[in-house]
Amino acid sequence: MPDRRPGLDPAVAEVRRAVRTALDTVPTGATVVVALSGGADSLALAAATAFEAPKRGVRAVALTIDHGLQPGSADAAATAADRARALGLGAEVVAVEVAEEGGPEAAARAARYGALAAAATRLNAHAVLLGHTLDDQAETVLLGLARGSGSGSLQGMAPTASVHDATLLRPLLDVRRATTRAACVAEGLDPWDDPHNVDERFARVRVRERVLPVLEAELGPGVAEALARTAAQSREDAEAFAEMIDETIEDIVEHAEAGISVSVAALAANPAALRHRIIRHVVDAEFGQSLTRTQTLEVARLVTEWSGQGPIDLPACTAARSGGQIVFTAR
């Protein structure tokens, strides 16, 4: 059956189709929150949700976060909420305080996700819809690679995720940014252009404005799509590894005094990639800390290159070899 009616703009049809697929996972009668900055991506998402949600018996509420980071932010947030109401959505504005530590981008993101999760809880929402596009995915992968984040960076953003117990849905991860802007034009919507999106003090903006265009020019078109495909494939690999770890870890991990221990023989019997993932998983699950690759390799040497070395200091714990066990102890 054709997806779009005669006369329906192709960009509008593509965005609606993506949102429709995401809403198919939402129960009838449920509520969803649409994160609306007022930019083209989130505005196209809001418009498509306003069209698709009622047909599925889903209530949608747009939530605009005012970070207060630039003059006029309150007015921009109020305008975004008005546009959501004009589309037929419920709309709210929430002002947040952005912490100073951790860098402005990370701090603003933490405040935003915290507010979205709190709103989802208050509204008893099934999910929060985010307007991240394929271009955002490509930028995320490149930034992660540049920062040396390892294979995790290749996974990019997941279509479905959880933050602060809130379910996040990203319907537009296969949709280009140019498509969302074209959809806004076709529907007569006037998106807000955030000045921060062209401020080259931010690494993501430099990737968007400089790095990706150079890669496209030097390597040919399709770089963003290739990065997005790589992210999807990497997530599949990571999910497979996670299943293997869950199956393996029950047999090789024991609780120890003030910590946890892992069988040396079992770690040695596994391939290096799985061994390293088990080590990282144990520290993350038990102590809530992420290990760098260097730290992971140092712990692995207690298994593969044991020569009597002493305990290794890690975030929140130490790792030491004791008999046939690697013992992780809280510090």
From TrEMBL:
CDD domains reported for this sequence: TilS_N
Catalytic reaction annotation: cytidine(34) in tRNA(Ile2) + L-lysine + ATP = lysidine(34) in tRNA(Ile2) + AMP + diphosphate + H(+)
Key words, A-Z: ATP-binding, Cytoplasm, Ligase, Nucleotide-binding, tRNA processing
Principal subcellular localisation of the protein: cytoplasm
One GO MF term: tRNA(Ile)-lysidine synthase activity
Entry EC no(s): 6.3.4.19
Domain characteristics, as noted in the entry: The N-terminal region contains the highly conserved SGGXDS motif, predicted to be a P-loop motif involved in ATP binding.
Protein family membership: Belongs to the tRNA(Ile)-lysidine synthase family.
Protein name in UniProt: tRNA(Ile)-lysidine synthase
Originating organism: Microbacterium fluvii
